[in-house]
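Make up an example, fold above all:
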Amino acid sequence: MLRRHLGMLFVAILCATQLKAQTDVTKPSPASANAPANANPWEFDLSLNGYLVPQGQSYFSPTLTVDRYRLHMEARYNYEALRTASLWMGYNLSAGKKVVLEATPMIGGVFGNTNGIAPGLQFTVTYRNLQLYSTNEYVFDTTTKAGNFFYTWTQLTYSPSEWFTFGYVVQRTRAYQTPLEIQRGFLVGITYKKVDFTTQIFNIGEADPTTVLSLGYRF
């Protein structure tokens, strides 16, 4: 089962890479009419999150996102539960100039140790160097109602420079066991060119701290 899910994730990443290598010959949408003629409409983001869980099973959770104008696609593994994958499709929306709102309503399918259908919403609110980011989903478990669950990862960050970010983060998850229904913590991140590295530490002073190490690459 684990090999099959890892194989599917590898295929998704390989397909995304091949899409990037192809030359785009489609007619650009009105939203891209002012973009440079040689601009690549495909945007890719690959992230790897390492969860260091005290008194539990530590694990990796990779996520691949692919955007083309309004279209948003996403593949996750070990996010909703261990040995569980999810595939998503959504629609990108944006509004505002000084205060910029970007939102992506999505629908996803979850399969593995947890199986179900999940509506979701990602949104970002940015004002100067201050940013609120949140990704949310509600999984309707097709096996048992007891498996229905609301997941969220929400963070408020401030970036005093282009390469440094710090902030506050909240998550609610069933991927691993914790005595706290809602986990709270702090994050610190650095950026170098197209690479981001972020450290999040949850449950400080409330329970055994859980550390999440995140590595992201945009291509």
Summary: The two ends are 30 Å apart (CA to CA). The chain has one domain: 2-24+41-218. DSSP finds one helix and 13 strands in the chain. The mean pLDDT is 87.
